[in-house]
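Both lines are retained for reference:
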Amino acid sequence: MTTPAATVPGFRLGLSHLLLVWAAGALALAVCLVITHYRLWRRVTPRRPLIDARVMNLLEDCKQAMGLRVPVTLVETPAVGSPSLFGFVRPRLLLPVG
């Protein structure tokens, strides 16, 4: 007599196990993003805003062309290798040194 497959002992990867693995990965990614954001925030916050008139005029022209009304602060920092936008509430446009 043969034993039905459902009663054979062994490792069975169920949906709950896959959900647990996915949740652990999502949590690890969230923790990594929070740590990275905090480290960048600590490097950018003490930097003074850029006040070069030529660059500020270019920024205002670009904002006008895109229809942006939100004030954007320019910050020159060695923390980035290319221009990037940082922040949601008070956005800062990060520019590499030079």
Remarks:
- The first strand starts at residue 73 and ends at 76.
- The beta strands are 73-76, 84-86, 92-95.
- The CA atoms of residues 38 and 44 lie 10 Å apart.
